[in-house]
Write a structure and sequence with these properties.
By secondary structure, this protein is an alpha+beta fold. Helix content is 26%, strand content 21%. A hairpin with a 5-residue loop joins β20 and β21.
Length: 512
């Protein structure tokens, strides 16, 4: 039966985050007539990109950046999370990110940090840039303005549900639901290609349960990311990869809200000294993991459900998730899910417990966190006790165990050395100013990485490695990142790079 087409374009892009915007802009500039389908309403569009901090990777050396990525992805002699050819493409295109984003009209792009998250061969090549003070929200506003100035049509409130193919398996277009109830369906013809940039499955509970390493896992990004692209890709025979991978750590999550929050453990002027590289010390003008700086700021610890510390609290921010996945098969539970952030009055008085420049408490406006944290204490999100024993009783932790943990931590602070986990001396501030507080912490973070596998041309591939004809993907939908995430700004870097790659090749397809 012949498909009835309601509208058409050369290239149809699904999703208007950073990857979708980069793909649409590049395909348009490559001579294609582009149409973007976005399921959110125009006034309410919030993507993971807009809720991000805005930093992005731009390597200073392509060869060394590939070495670093290979170090992250190599499992065995010939076994990689991601094929080295893909890593070469990533290194080449991400090394152009700064020039490209400045070409989009972003000014004040500055070097924020230097060095990858892991001290592996090539880590020195990873430079992380920040686009002035605009953050992710401002960055997305600018990219959307670039889409608009090119005259690229964006259909909001239009949810893609199915990829349409011919007898050869070529993707010819998209079926999408529109209108207030989403029950009015239209078929959109793509004469050259479809680019999927629909994000991950951070807000699909079934997918998270089946694919991620621990449940529950909560995320900081856009509630619109519900795995739509994965289901559509499976419908045309796509192969999946990296489905159990995510960029995650510990987050705050409360039943009242869909999104999670990013904790700011050490106070408003706190910068986590997790980086263990000489480059970090150089960038900060000294200090670093082995710094002998005197303690400053406020104190805190993180404990499991028994009331014990279990790791150094100044952890790597994109992979601490894996520390939380240890399942106690004898007692049939995850002893670190939830964990508890323990702090005293000094931390409560030192500014909001969450980041307010990005995420759910940022410009996206999912929640306005109080400056003094008092509203959240009243809500019961922050648990209070006049003594450590009373706090333990309020949280359900064993009072004697929590008291011993705090005592041992305070002794480490007095001695200036954490003999249990090697925490940096500059962070060893005692917990000695009551009342005391606790917040539940859950596995979670920015985003999932899994989805349809793509090749170095951004083509979606089947299980035999052959491309699904005329189908491309970009961004975190089938991200190239495996178990280990390279550094902060990695996802935006990939959005820019593979958005451009997808746009270039999609616009170059021969029209049908």
């Amino acid at each position: 039966m012949r498909t009835r087409w309601h509208m058409d374009a050369d290239v149809v892009v699904i999703g208007l985050g950073a990857a979708g915007a980069a793909a649409a802009i590049t395909a348009h500039d490559g001579g294609a007539r582009v149409l973007v389908l976005e399921k959110q309403e125009r006034e309410k569009v919030v993507s993971n990109s807009s809720m991000a901090g805005g930093s992005f990777i731009c390597p200073n050396d392509v060869h060394e950046a590939r070495r670093y990525m290979e170090s992250l992805c190599r499992v065995g002699a010939d076994l990689y999370w991601t094929d080295p050819d893909m890593l070469q493409t990533w290194a080449e295109y991400t090394s152009e990110n700064k020039v490209w984003i400045e070409g989009m009209g972003v000014t004040g792009v500055t070097l924020a940090r230097r060095g990858g998250e892991y001290k592996l061969p090539g880590y020195e090549s990873i430079d992380i840039y920040r686009p002035g003070d605009m953050g992710g929200f401002g960055l997305m506003h600018l990219l959307c303005r670039q889409v608009k100035t090119r005259g690229i049509q964006v259909m909001h409130h239009t949810r893609a549900t199915k990829l349409l193919t011919n007898s050869k398996g070529e993707v010819l277009g998209v079926c999408a639901g529109s209108g207030n109830d989403g029950k009015k369906f239209i078929n959109v013809r793509s004469r050259r290609a479809v680019i999927m940039a629909t994000g991950g499955f951070e807000f699909d509970e079934g997918m998270k349960l089946q694919f991620l390493k621990v449940y529950p896992t909560y995320f900081l990004g856009a509630p619109a990311n519900t795995g739509d692209g994965i289901r559509m890709a499976l419908g045309v025979g796509a192969h999946l990869w990296h489905m159990n991978c995510c960029s995650a750590r510990l987050v705050m999550k409360f039943p009242d809200l869909a999104v999670a929050f990013n904790p700011v453990f050490g106070g408003k002027d706190w910068a986590s000294p997790w980086r263990e590289t000489e480059l970090a010390a150089e960038t900060k003008g000294g200090g670093g993991a082995e710094s002998n700086e005197a303690p400053g700021g406020v104190g805190y610890i993180i404990v499991d459900q028994t009331g014990k510390r279990y790791a150094r609290e100044t952890f790597k921010p994109h992979s601490f998730y894996y520390e939380l996945t240890g399942f106690d098969s004898q007692k049939a539970f995850y002893p670190r899910v939830p964990s508890y952030w323990i702090f005293d009055q000094r931390r409560l008085d030192d500014g909001p417990l969450v980041r307010t420049g990005s995420g759910g408490a940022g410009p996206a406006g999912f929640y306005r966190w109080s400056e003094d944290n008092r509203d959240e204490v009243e809500r019961g999100w922050i648990i209070k006790g006049s003594t450590i024993k009373e706090l333990a009783d309020q949280t359900g932790l064993a009072p004697a165990c929590l008291a011993e943990t705090v005592h041992r931590y305070n002794e480490s602070c007095r001695q200036g050395k954490d003999v249990d986990f090697g925490r940096q001396r500059s962070t060893l501030v005692p917990l000695d100013t009551g009342p005391y507080y606790a917040v539940k912490l859950w596995p979670g973070g920015p985003n999932t990485q899994g989805g349809p596998q793509r090749n170095s041309r951004a083509q979606v591939v089947r299980s035999d490695g052959e491309p699904v004809p005329r189908l491309y993907s970009a961004g975190e939908l089938g991200s190239i990142y495996g178990m280990l995430y390279p550094a902060g700004g990695g996802n935006l870097a990939e959005c820019f790079a593979f958005g451009r790659i997808a746009g270039e090749h999609a616009s170059g397809e021969h029209p049908l």
